[in-house]
Amino acid sequence: MEYSLFILVAPFFLFLVLGLLGMKMKPKVAGIIGTIGMGLCAICAYTVAYQYFFQTGKVGEVWQQIIPLNFEWLRFTENLHIDLGILLDPISVMMLVVITTVSLMVHIYSLGYMHGETGFQRYYALLSLFSFSMLGLVVATNIFQMYIFWELVGVSSYSLIGFYYTKPSAVSASKKAFIVTRFADLGFLIGILILSYYTKTFDFGTLTANHAELVTTSLAGGTFMGLSLATWALTLIFMGGAGKSAMFPLHIWLPDAMEGPTPVSALIHAATMVVAGVFLVARLFPVYFFAAPDVLELIAYVGTFTALFAAVIAITQTDIKRVLAFSTISQIAYMMVALGVSDYGGHDGLGYMASMFHLFTHAFFKALLFLGAGSVIHAVHSNEMSQMGNLRKYMPITNITFAIACLAIAGIPPFSGFFSKDEILAAAFHNHPLIFWTLWAVAGLTAFYMWRLYYCIFWNTPKGDLAAEHSADSNSLQGVGGHHHTPHESPWTMAAPLIILAVFSVFSGLIPFADFISSDNRPFHAHIDWVVASLSIGVGVIGIAIATVLYLKKSDKPAEIAQSLGVFYKAALHKFYLDEVWMWVTQTVIFKYICMPIAWFDRHIIDAAMNGLAWTTQKSADSVKGLQSGQVQFYAWVFVAGSILIAVLVLFT
Amino acid sequence: MNILSLFVVVPVLMIVFLFLSKGMKQIRTIMVTGASALLVLAATLVVLFLKERAVSPDAEMLFVSSITWFKPLNIAYSVGVDGISVVMLVLSSIIVFTGIFSSWNMDMAKEYFLWYCLLSLGVFGFFISIDLFTMFMFYEIALIPMYLLIGLWGTGRKEYSAMKLTLMLMGGSAFLLVGIVGIYYTSGQASMNLLEIANNLHIPYEHQRWIFPATFLGFGVLGALFPFHTWSPDGHASAPTAVSMLHAGVLMKLGGYGCFRVAIYLMPEAAHELGWIFLILTGISVVYGAFSAVVQTDLKYINAYSSVSHCGLVLFAILMLNQTAMTGAVMQMLSHGLMTALFFALIGLIYGRTHTRDIREMGGLMKIMPFASVCYVIAGLASLGLPGLSGFVAEMTIFVGSFQNTDTFHRVLTIVACCSIVITAVYILRTVGKILYGPVQDEHHLHLTDAAWYEKVSAVGLILAIAAMGMLPFGVSDIISKSIVPIVEKLAGI
Amino acid sequence: MIKVEYYLIISTLMFFIGIFGFITRKNMIAILISLELVLNAVEINFAAFNRYLYPHQLEGMFFTLFGIAITAAESAVALAIIINAYRSIGNININNMNKMKN
Fold it and tell me: Which of residues 154-193 of A touch B (CB under 8 A)?
């Protein structure tokens, strides 16, 4: 399956072509080249997936790890070397499909959404770079290759968030995203260093083989500050994953990242890059499970807390992209929890399967939600909920597809989200009641805030009269013929991806996922646990119902409820003040209390010491300089006096 | 003639022709021809070196030749190269070449380029020589022109900076001379030849104990070792563009190379016993330089402190005393040389147009000069260690290599040094965000032009080198690491 | 015959008067004159000792003659310098002769 290399080469080649020659092309040409390239890439990925899942992947009853390509890129020591290669196994092939599909949809969608933007070519070049990095990340054969592409996705995300680089908020958001994830990557790097030092390998296959025997034996017995080395290494690696996947408290960059163009948010900050952390933990799952089960427990609790935390914030947000951002955080946390509560092998590994399943379905419906939101923003030219309302009449396609996505994320059967979420809840149910009931509550909250969002966009009337609102802001709409400005449905380049993704969102849940993906690579049969399912459907329906009551029509109730919650509401609205903490840490602690004193120290102590040395030399030179006055008479005087002195000494001693 | 001597002959010829030249056009022709010749020479050397090494894989140095110079003291003009010197020669020729394009429109061009050639002469001579005295002589030849180049063609407090830089480096070379004389007299045979001392002679440990710090410190000053790094910010800030490029790109490498070739290679026992003191200093350099860079407002100061941090990493890795880390150190020299030269070239370009280097007075340059800005972003990304560019491979080799040490001290220090990658990201992104992105700060900047063709040559050349090294590191790493083997064997043999 | 001591007394006086003048005077002409005194004191000694120690030989006398010639040349050069110095700085005070140093 060497041709799978094409999946990586094509986007990279596109990046070079569009990046170097893009400015010489017409924007449209560049966009179409990018889209066609991505399309070919997607076709190739589908072929690989087909061939893997239905022809060559399964030998006996076990899914194989196929490495069609692997070469040594950089050698460190005899054992340690970075290889670049392609590893095909169920999860990486699944990710290939997800990434290429969503990326292709975003490419098509952007043709319409980004139409007329300056830097259109740059945008497509960066999209290609991102696709390349993300695809490279998922097919990584070793942990260092993953780290390489991990950094690359970070940079492409940075450049895309800061796409509107003249906007200060976009610039600071991109900076924040990069630095926060970079900080997390530091943990990842140190984790890799520790792990590779003991195991003498970076290779995933070797690390996970035989129930991660290598890791458990080579790291056995070592402790550092009371925790085992394996715990340290894997916690640090998880830290990297938590940074990219926006787990509390490293999630602060994701809501700000919404400053980027909306299709970018759909691709990077909803469907693909942010699940890299989940993918990382899944990739190393046997290592986590056998070498450091305590870290898995930590992951479960961090995930649970993040899910709840983000869901609570999502309820209060009014910027539609921020709602979606917090919803993404919450859903990724779901996946993390599923991994955290999973056991290994067969039906016990349900959580692992559920996590990947949810990753798969979530990618589609969340991308759909973002693209739908983009379509709305494109029509209304605002992110604020208060500017929207009653749009269903003007944007029927967006309305329906958005509703489908909301049903999917709320976990209503037979939409895809129901199946994956149900498996996660079932896995949690068998693990710990606290986790289960929290997730259950989060499911309700999710249904509630998503439908709140939906109603506020498409039903509820905006604050103030819609028409007045819009005509007041002449930029907001492109009216036809100069009369009555109305929001209008997006062009087909934007509508088509919505429809395709909606189809995926409806049907992707019906795939028998356990047949393809499982913790030990052996297919098993997962069935729907109807107790759990009915509980989750119930809470979903309740959530939707409450949202319907409160937000279907314009009413004062939401405000009253917010009033009654007082401080708590305010805290949630301000995202529990974590951004302020971040500002305080970076601006005050690091900048003012660490860097400033160091720079001061450098100038006023170290450098002053050097200057002091020079000054002392000069001063001492000055003080003896008087002797060398240049006055010959003085010299003569000294000479004569000296001769007389000597003569006297000679004569009288 | 030995191919290595050509590296010295070509600059000499350039100097001679410059004397005879008239007019800007002739000067430029001479410089570009000469530098291209050096570039071709370096490329040829790589090919020949690889061929020759395939023939005699055990030889430590290749193309060795020696002409006695002063018999009574056993001083000879001895040359020879191993993988490390070859890479350094390639680096130097790239930087010398691109530096010319960055100083295309200089006042008093003839004198300027005369000193420039003399400086290159010293640098090339240093890297090829394996005789301690010759090495020291070339080292001094490289240092002196710096004073004039900064003092005459610099900006700002140029006399002060030039004086400070020269004095501090001369202070370092005083230590160095003491060290060299010490080696000469204590090794037993009164030899100046590096190979002979390393392989046949032995410096007793009680002498190594004082010679090692002297030589390490002597070269360390040039390698911006904390706390002797303060010449770097002032010196770089005042120096003209190409001189900054050459200085940070090549001259600071002389420090690392010298520590490696003289201090560690000749005195392995002392390196083992006393290395930890310098290791702490370099560890401080790495983090301290990065933190200092965060609050600077002058572009050149930011870059100078970043150099302190990155060059600190070079010395840090050398002192880790294992093959991987040392390979990483040489790669870091190469990588830092290239990207810092690129940085200075671009800063010179920006400064030449905006007439300010204060990042608070700039903004939105991406819109005004897209080419230069994109190059700046690439340089920044290389500096913060983006995979695919040179910084990543070098840093990762260092970190992985350093972490292979078995004791906790070294590994904890490695983790501390790792933290610099985050701080680097902070100051790079801060600078990029301030000057390139955001709204335009100064209306006058709107009329500025983008890079001229000669500036583009300089930037593109360096970017190509950075990307080539970042994407195809195996070749570089291979050339270097094989030459580290004898050194590591010596270290292991004690 | 006059005793040699008398010659020596007068030449010693001349010598130290010359030294004193050389050290204390600021005027360059005066310094030159003092210098002449010193030299002439030496020449007196040459002549006197020649006369008393080796009356039949003339080396001391010749030395004296050479000395006088060189003194004359020296005075000429010195005066030329002094005149030039006066032209350039307007006086001949020795303390002002420090352009080269500063």
Answer: 155, 158, 162, 165-168, 171-172, 174-175, 178-179, 182-183, 185-186, 189-190, 193
| Interchain proximity A193–B419, CB inside 8 Å | no
| Contact: B473, A74; criterion CB under 8 Å | yes
Q: Which residue of B has its CA nearest to A194?
A: B403
Contact B367 A190 (CB under 8 A): no
Q: With CB atoms and an 8 Å threshold, state whether B294 touches A196.
A: no
Q: Would the CB atoms of C23 and A636 count as touching at under 8 Å?
A: yes
C15: alpha, beta or left? (left if phi > 0; alpha if psi -120 to 50): alpha
Q: Looking at chain A, which residue has its C-alpha nearest residue B440?
A: A166
Residue C102 has pLDDT above 60, yes or no: no
- At C8-51, the pLDDT tens digits run 999 999 999 999 998 888 888 999 999 999 999 999 999 999 98
Instruction: Classify C41 as helix, strand or coil.
Output: helix
CB contact under 8 A, B426 and A599: no
Q: What is the Cα Rg of chain C in Å?
A: 17
- Between CA B370 and CA A119 the distance in angstroms is 11
Main-chain phi, psi angles of A300, to 5 degrees: -60, -45
Nearest CA in chain C to A625: C101
What separation in angstroms does the CA of B126 have from each of B79, B137, B141, B469?
Answer: 10, 8, 9, 24
A636 touches chain C (CB under 8 A): yes
Q: Report cis status (omega within 30 of 0) of the bond before A433.
A: no
Domain-by-domain residue ranges, chain C?
Answer: 4-90
CB A96 within 8 A of CB A7: yes
A631 contacts in C (CB within 8 Å)? 94-95
Compute the average pLDDT of residues A453-465: 74
pLDDT value of residue A480: 36
Q: Within an 8 Å CB–CB cutoff, is residue C23 touching chain A?
A: yes
**If one looks up domain C4-90 in CATH, what number appears?**
1.10.287.3510
Q: List, as one string, the DSSP characters of C46-76.
A: HHHHHHHH-TT--HHHHHHHHHHHHHHHHHH
Band the pLDDT of A474: cuts 50, 70, 90.
Answer: very low
Per-residue pLDDT tens over the stretch A593-636: 888 888 888 888 888 888 888 899 889 988 887 777 777 788 88
State the burial class of residue A412 (Cβ atoms within 10 Å of its Cβ: 0-12, 13-18, 19+): middle
